[in-house]
Amino acid sequence: MSDKQSNQLSNLTLILNASYLPLGVCTSKRAICLFFLNKVDILMNYEDYIYSPSTRLKVPSVIKLKKYVNFNSLDVVLNRKNLLLRDNSCCQYCSSTKNLTIDHIIPKQKGGKDTWENLIIACSSCNAKKGNRTPFEANMKLMKEAKKPNRFMYYNQFINYKNKGWKDYLFHGKN
Ligand SMILES: [Zn+2]
């Protein structure tokens, strides 16, 4: 396989459920495997082709499962990467983008949980200044309420000039 081909295979493909609800994102390589396993229909392609000795195929950009799977795609996984994404990679107290940490709004020792509503991105100095206090006790104001993000935020990070067509399925699709 040439470098160009392997680049194209690392393109991302949007996977839709049989109901057209977005399910996730995979590499185009995986999408092509699913296609050859007869598990998906291809709805949209990139301009690039991949070649095998016997066939030529456009790289899939959006695929749809033939069979419906029961999966709640509304949930975004709670992890550091997605917290950074939700909070625009800046401290929610002072908007610094340096030395970012994860702060428990209600400290753990006071019963604060590891949830979207209780975790925010904070720079290390704000985190240290706040210490083992609530924002109210520390007289520090959050720039915005900590909320559970939705899947639009999640998918938005993958949208680029090559796959603008995804928007039709993500934001105006038959949900
Ligand atoms: Zn800060």
Name the descriptors.
DNA Binding (I), subunit A, 2 domains, two-stranded antiparallel ribbon, binds zinc ion
Could you walk me through the main structural features you see in this protein, from its secondary elements to its overall organization?
With 175 residues, the chain is α+β, with helices and mostly antiparallel strands. It folds into two domains: 3-73 and 151-170, no CATH class; 80-138, DNA Binding (I), subunit A (Orthogonal Bundle), CATH 1.10.30.50. Helix content is 26%, strand content 25%. It contains seven helices and six strands; from the N terminus they run αββαββαββαααα. The strands form two sheets. Strands 2-1-4-3 form a four-stranded mixed beta sheet, with helices on both faces. It is elongated, with a radius of gyration of 21 Å. The relative contact order is 0.17. The structure holds zinc ion (ZN). Zinc ion (ZN) binds next to strand 6 and helix 4.
